[in-house]
């Protein structure tokens, strides 16, 4: 047999491509991984940490939007991963143009992220705001980027800091107040002990952000001219005039009301955190029909939430994006998820009418009932007698901001950046609040009419209150600690009406009522014993001897409030031009009206009116100058020009009288009011 012929060894150049892994390739991938870790660290500090910190302290954000745990987990994944993934893809794309371009692009990204981080740090640690803060952040970021490019130690520190995003996610999921919503733990709430006696139906309405003083007239009684239905309720119930909420924040105030205990820890307003509450106490005996808004205290075993606001991952992403813009802005802003809460209307929810339009001449437009809050419509539809005792519960975000309703029920648009404090602004905020409160009075009237028509008026225990108030005192507007210190009468004191079954006459009780008294009072009236310790005392018991009240800006840190029933601040005298007809006047100056186009296509039948007018004036118009705003020749508001802010030299006016408007084109005029009262018409743009 012949020897086989051995082929010569192949030349390396002809043997195909080199192995996939070479020292040079491995080095490039290590460098790319290092860059990715650096970007992840910076994005974690700029986006993941601040956003998850805000959301983690705001479990009510997820409760209001009825977010399922999977939606929250997806949102967290998007916040923690998507920005890094996007930058990684950008890096790969720039790498196609060569190593130098890739390194330059990475340095630019690092510089931008360092500038964004400097803005956030500077806003919290320095008095700089706006353009000065941006310039300082850019200079600081440029120096930091130069240091990064020159010394490798900066990059190594950033790579170690890449552990941050997983830590931030873990803190959100397992240690933040929102963790109870994302990963709820099952808890069985205690049922009340049923005692002898009648168990009447219970109808309970909790309004939101309603100070008692907003309802009062000069005589200290409910202003029946402005709020006839609140006055009607007061005339047939016991009005606990010296009633105060427990906190200025609903996630603490409402659980205290429904558990009878002062807030001790910053817990999510969720049944897993407050397993023992009104719904579990009555749930063994009563059917529960609960309409909650930013709480979820009624466990699924007791009740379902039949009408939800807009929900799902999409709305969470949208609203989180708005929060991120506030977090990253170089100006001060109230970073409060609650600002996004708005009651969906019946039309938006696609609900049929529960009741016909009331026969009220001020209720002018046939379709305004579509503007009725959807959960209120469902609540009304459920007010029917039942063979079993029933608890009808509604927490309605009215007259809570955002203020969008006129007294008639028509809605109006408003920009999101209008301040609520400062000269001119706080007066506008209060006017918008009072207009929405008058619409809320209409909803109360619808409730009373439905209760009478159904027979529940005489049979049920009826309670109406608010969880907290809000201050409209200049420089102390809102519900925070400063507002409590300077205007506690507006923040803490709230309306509290209790009508017992068969009550024939109204009366006023000025005992020291605190909202932890609500649950014990309901328990006594329904003959159910509460099986846990409560801090409150029933209205059937002797009043407290102490006049001191407990109020919590933070759980576990009680503030002591003193004083009796507050008096309503005096209303400003109406300007004599209000309601007058204005003829031809000489022109003198210019102004810009942002929503001028809305007056060219007014459709009152749609239930929306351009009732808020806002814009800017040139610098030659001094601060404090009065402007008269007229629609179709009649003055509907007189407002001042406010000092310049980030929006420019601005003005804004509410025109709540819907009789000013007509279908089609409406004439809008703006006049500068002189010191002697003469008017000069401003040319509008």
Automatic annotation (TrEMBL):
<protein>
    <submittedName>
        <fullName>Arylsulfatase A-like enzyme</fullName>
    </submittedName>
</protein>
<feature type="region of interest" description="Disordered">
    <location>
        <begin position="539"/>
        <end position="588"/>
    </location>
</feature>
<feature type="compositionally biased region" description="Basic and acidic residues">
    <location>
        <begin position="334"/>
        <end position="349"/>
    </location>
</feature>
<feature type="transmembrane region" description="Helical">
    <location>
        <begin position="156"/>
        <end position="175"/>
    </location>
</feature>
<keyword id="KW-0472">Membrane</keyword>
<dbReference type="Pfam" id="PF00884">
    <property type="entry name" value="Sulfatase"/>
</dbReference>
<keyword id="KW-0812">Transmembrane</keyword>
<keyword id="KW-1133">Transmembrane helix</keyword>
<feature type="transmembrane region" description="Helical">
    <location>
        <begin position="128"/>
        <end position="149"/>
    </location>
</feature>
<dbReference type="InterPro" id="IPR017850">
    <property type="entry name" value="Alkaline_phosphatase_core_sf"/>
</dbReference>
<feature type="domain" description="Sulfatase N-terminal">
    <location>
        <begin position="375"/>
        <end position="524"/>
    </location>
</feature>
<feature type="region of interest" description="Disordered">
    <location>
        <begin position="1"/>
        <end position="25"/>
    </location>
</feature>
<feature type="transmembrane region" description="Helical">
    <location>
        <begin position="104"/>
        <end position="122"/>
    </location>
</feature>
<dbReference type="InterPro" id="IPR052701">
    <property type="entry name" value="GAG_Ulvan_Degrading_Sulfatases"/>
</dbReference>
<dbReference type="InterPro" id="IPR000917">
    <property type="entry name" value="Sulfatase_N"/>
</dbReference>
<feature type="transmembrane region" description="Helical">
    <location>
        <begin position="72"/>
        <end position="92"/>
    </location>
</feature>
<feature type="region of interest" description="Disordered">
    <location>
        <begin position="334"/>
        <end position="353"/>
    </location>
</feature>
